[in-house]
Amino acid sequence: AAEADAGALMCPQGADVRFGSKPDGTVVVQAPKVDVTATYQVIIKSASRITLDAPEIDLKGRVEATDGLHSLKDITTNANVAADGSIGAGGSIIDGGGNTNHHSHS
Description:
The chain is an all-beta fold and 106 residues long. The protein has strands at residues 4-10, 16-21, 27-30. A three-stranded antiparallel beta sheet has the order 1-2-3, with no helix packed on it.
């Protein structure tokens, strides 16, 4: 919540939109729903970090990570995975189709 509301808007549908700022300079917007539509491109920049904090995040379209991708939890997919480079694992790689090579060389 904002430390002190700088303003409030009442939308025709009755949605209460509030905006303000915190002492650290953070801009706060409170609204039941925010919809951003652009005809070309949306760019969000930060000098340090961008955090998306929600129980579920739905990304539609291709996702490109130009500087790597790191996950702190398990990643699951219902699709195939392809790699143009090496795949390394700190643990076992287990398949359900019987194609994993389970032999060793002596």
